[in-house]
Design a protein that fits this description.
The complex is a heterodimer.
Chain A (H helix, E strand, L loop, with lengths): L1 E2 L8 E7 L3 H9 L7 E7 L6 E5 L2 E5 L1 H4 L2 E4 L3
Antiparallel strand pairs in A: 1-6, 2-3, 2-6, 3-4, 4-5
Chain B lengths: L1 E7 L5 H9 L4 E4 L6 E7 L6 E5 L11 H13 L3 E7 L3 H11 L6 E6 L1 H6 L3 E2 L1 H8 L3 E3 L8 H9 L16 H13 L5 H9 L9 H14 L3 H17 L3 E2 L8 H9 L5 H17 L25 E4 L2 E4 L2 H6 L10 H26 L4 H19 L2 H17 L1 H14 L8 H6 L4 H7 L6 H10 L9 H15 L4 H25 L11 E2 L8 H35 L16 H9 L17 H9 L6 H13 L10 H11 L3 H13 L4 H10 L5 H24 L3 H20 L14
Parallel strand pairs in B: 1-4, 1-5, 5-6, 6-8
Antiparallel strand pairs in B: 2-3, 3-4, 7-9, 10-11
Helix pairs in contact in B: 3-10, 7-8, 7-9, 12-16, 14-15, 14-16, 15-23, 16-23, 19-29, 20-22, 21-22, 21-27, 21-28, 22-28, 23-29, 24-25, 25-26, 26-27, 28-30
The chains are: A alpha+beta, B alpha/beta.
Chain lengths: 76, 761
């Protein structure tokens, strides 16, 4: 298990669980961050935060604090 | 006439499709209670005219953003005859997520599959017919930008059966809880029971308002065991990728798109921020510069281009330039001693036209033999007021155009991405940066631009501090008074004073935001989970329609609220208490002057109150006239300077006026600094006030005016006292420390303060 906020640039993973609560959790679901989705960390903002990830064929940005709610597993 | 609602994700081409459908019939209003644009128009391309309502761009029908709630309530309560769901074909999975929710409502749905051309370019293919047979509602491929497929879309839309039962794609392990919730909703006789059932089991806040519903939801959620809302979102996406995405045939080898390449440069680790600063510089340079690309050198000593006067085509009379003929006057709009930027050229052209109109009206009034006061009402009050406000329009629109281009290309989202880290410290998101920086140009477009902020409290806080980012019209106050200070008190550097004033404005803004976000505008930092849309070239038609909307909006305001307040101020400064007209040349006996004298003592802590001699009221009066437009502060100085120096002629930069004022009132330099800061941070011009009123949530405008008054008063007082007696700095620091302690203790719940006024939602 690895949290999305700890990814290195270029790292790939598959979402296993989404934590957090209320607004943040709902928003993550609505934007397609659900168990089973493949994510790649594309880049970090110039100041190291927020992050840009690719999932379901589009680019999503989220803060490290929000990425902390996303648990992933390695994909072969 | 039947009504169709247009629904879809942001950046899916929804606005483009709406413009293509409705063209010039569109009009913009507000959704009730919120400042979210409501666009409506009529489609006249088919046999039957159809009313089209553009719903806000949304990703889901959750209850967390005003946009989502609006879309959801419109469909459920207003019962449109159908929904046109625009789906971005290049991003099928996420777009269909919303579609699966729309399908659960009891309303006919048709899908417009947009950007099929872009899909083809990437080498992919989508089988629209296959998608249609799987989803069970009509699917029509279109290109909103090229306006293809639209006729067919509308034809099939009007031919849809007039009712449709909501269905859900979800089943399997969710079938049992859904059936249970649906039964409950049917008993409650809700329309769209399937939709409500799903929302119920998701634990949706809006759905759980009734006590019975809450109990039912808890029962279902408890019996499911697992995390139900996660399961619903999960199953939706699983179903989409398993069933619908098979309609998409991926290209053998994905190519790196132009968008990805552009993004690599524009959000580069090192170059991202410098590139952004350069882009921002060009936006302002092209809008406001009177020396395009520094062709005329960087400093005045490098200037080499001759003015029209140098060439013998005109002469200076007082503070205005008289050109030999119309041709020269026209040419001078583009070039006069330096090449102008597009924004300045447009302003000059409009002012040229306005000057002729003003002149014509003036002649007409004279020919009609109107009384002095009537002539002044028409010339100075009505015409003067309207032209003063309309004169801003070209630069406002130019600035708006540039920012719209940046928004439409997708760059603005990246700016938020780059800057979010910095802004979070102040309790704002990266999105708040753009409106603030636009404030340096003009507060009006800046305040309207706050619509990109999702969180209401964040918006309110941002709108309130926008005037602290000193706008173009406040610069003359700065240069004139700073020039005056240098002239009288022997400082040598005007630039340093000007620069410090700007900086002080920014600091005031930051401090105010922090204070507001920890007191009245308290709330968690809104989440920053957003799409970074692919870069694309903005559509010309969209941009122009957008600008046209803003123009209409602004002109309407200029002719109503701004106009009324301008005439009021004109009246106050042109009449004495016994209703005698005195004209602007003897303002010292006017009603306004006596109001100035009345409130003068209030400004004592700011240095321009009772400590000045009998003429001290001129500063109070100048501050009031500045409400029409901030340039008026110096214009008022000109008028009043004539009272001290007989036959005083105004100068272009206003420095001479300032010098006369300083010498005749005995004001000190700290008080002048305080006067500048007061004008910079107090109530902005009427045009900005009108915009703030329209953009702020209900009931917040009065508090905002109060906020501006209090802030400017404190800032002015700090400037005056600290610059006059350095040790007062420690008193202010002690007060600030006490205030911070109080706020922190209150927010931690250690102490409780009585609430003033009733709590607002």
């Amino acid at each position: 298990m690895k949290l999305l906020c700890n990814f290195a640039v270029g790292e790939r993973g598959r979402v296993t669980a989404v934590g957090g609560e209320g607004r943040v959790r709902r928003r993550l679901f609505d934007m397609g961050v659900t168990p089973g989705a493949d994510v790649v960390l594309v880049k970090k903002a110039p100041l190291g935060d927020p992050l840009e990830v690719t999932l379901r064929g589009y680019q999503l940005t989220l803060r490290k604090s929000e990425a902390q709610c996303v648990e992933t597993e390695a994909v072969k | 006439m039947r009504t169709f609602a247009l629904a879809g994700n942001p950046n899916s081409g929804k606005t483009t499709l709406f413009n293509a459908l409705t063209g010039s019939t569109a009009h913009v209003g507000n959704w009730p209670g919120v400042t979210v644009d409501k666009r409506e128009g009529v489609y006249k391309g088919g046999r039957e005219h159809v009313n089209i309502v553009d719903l806000p761009g949304i990703y889901s029908l959750s209850p967390y953003t005003p946009e989502e709630v609006i879309a959801r309530n419109f469909i459920l309560n207003e019962h449109p005859d159908g929904i046109i769901n625009i789906v971005d074909a290049t991003n099928l999975e996420r777009n269909l997520y919303l579609t699966t929710q729309l399908l659960e409502m009891d309303v006919p749905v048709i899908i417009a599959l947009n950007m099929m051309d872009a899909v083809g370019k990437a080498g992919d293919k989508i089988d629209a017919a296959a998608l249609e047979s799987r989803i069970g509602v009509p699917v029509v491929p279109i290109s909103a930008l090229k306006e293809t497929g639209i006729k067919e879309l509308m034809q099939r839309a009007v031919n849809m059966p007039s009712t449709r039962r909501g269905t859900t794609v979800l089943g399997g392990r969710l079938a049992q809880p859904i059936r249970q919730a649906e039964e409950f909703c049917r008993q409650q006789e809700l329309s769209s029971p399937v939709f409500h059932a799903l929302k119920l089991i998701e634990g949706d806040e809006l759905e759980l308002e009734g006590r019975e519903a809450k109990a039912e939801a808890e029962k279902i959620r408890a019996s499911f065991g697992d995390d139900l809302d996660a399961a619903v979102a999960d199953e939706r996406y699983k179903y989409i990728s398993a069933n619908f995405s098979t309609a998409k045939v991926k290209a053998a080898k994905p190519v790196q798109s132009k968008s990805d390449r552009a993004d690599r440069v524009l959000t580069h680790k090192i170059w991202g921020i410098p590139i952004f600063i350069v882009i921002l510089f060009f936006v302002f340079h092209l809008t406001f510069s009177e020396n395009l690309f520094y062709l005329n050198g960087f400093t005045e000593s490098q200037a080499w281009m001759p003015t029209m006067e140098d060439l013998g085509y005109g002469q200076t009379l007082g503070d205005s330039e008289i050109y030999s003929n119309f041709g020269i006057a026209l040419a001078a709009c583009f070039y006069d001693g330096a090449v102008f930027s597009p924004g300045v050229i447009l302003t000059n052209l409009l002012n040229l036209v306005l000057n002729y109109i003003t002149y014509g009206i003036g002649l007409g009034v004279e020919a009609a033999g109107a009384a002095d006061w009537a002539a002044s009402l028409v010339n100075d009050g009505i015409v003067g007021g309207i032209t003063a406000v309309l004169g801003f329009l070209p630069q406002i629109l130019t600035l708006f155009l540039f920012f719209s281009i940046l928004e439409d290309t997708g760059y603005m989202a990246r700016v938020a991405f780059i800057l979010d880290r910095i802004f979070r410290r102040f309790g704002l998101s990266g999105r708040a940066f753009m409106p603030m920086i636009m404030g340096f140009g003009c507060s009006l477009p800046a305040m309207i631009n706050t619509r990109t902020l999702a969180d209401e409290k964040e918006r309110t806080a941002t709108i309130r501090v926008i005037p602290f980012f000193s706008c173009g019209a406040k610069l003359p106050i700065l240069t004139a008074i700073a020039g005056g200070i240098c002239g009288v008190f022997g400082f040598s550097n005007v630039d340093v004073i000007t620069y410090s004033m700007y900086l002080l404005g920014i600091i005031t803004a930051i401090v105010s935001v922090i204070v507001m976000r920890s007191t009245t505008m308290r709330g968690e930092v809104p989440p920053f989970i957003m799409e970074l849309p692919a870069y694309h070239v903005p559509g010309f038609k969209n941009l122009m329609l957008h600008l046209w909307d803003k123009t209409k909006h602004f002109v309407k305001k200029a002719f109503t609220i701004i106009f009324a307040s301008t005439v009021l101020i004109w009246f106050l400064q042109s009449f004495t208490w016994n209703w005698t007209f005195i004209g602007s040349d003897s303002m010292q006996t006017s009603i306004l002057a006596s109001i100035g004298q009345l409130i003068q003592p209030l400004f004592t802590p700011l240095g321009f109150g009772s400590q000045l001699n009998e003429y001290g009221w001129v500063f109070a009066v100048a501050a009031i006239t500045g409400l029409i437009a901030k340039e008026n502060v110096i214009a008022t100085f000109s008028v009043l300077a004539a009272m001290f120096v007989a036959g005083f002629e105004g100068t272009e930069d206003g420095v001479a006026e300032a010098v006369v004022m300083i010498q005749n009132t005995g004001i000190t330099w700290p008080a002048l600094i305080s006067f500048i800061m007061f004008n910079m941070t107090t109530i902005p011009c009427f045009a900005a006030c009108a915009t703030a009123k329209a953009e702020l949530p209900k009931g917040k405008f009065g508090w905002t005016i109060l906020f501006w008054l209090v802030t400017s008063y404190i800032v002015g007082a700090i400037c005056y006292t600290v610059l006059s007696w350095w040790w007062t700095l420690f008193i202010w620091l002690a007060v600030a420390a006490a205030a911070v302690t109080l706020i922190v203790l209150k927010n931690r719940g250690v102490i409780k303060l009585p609430r003033i006024g009733k709590k607002r939602a």
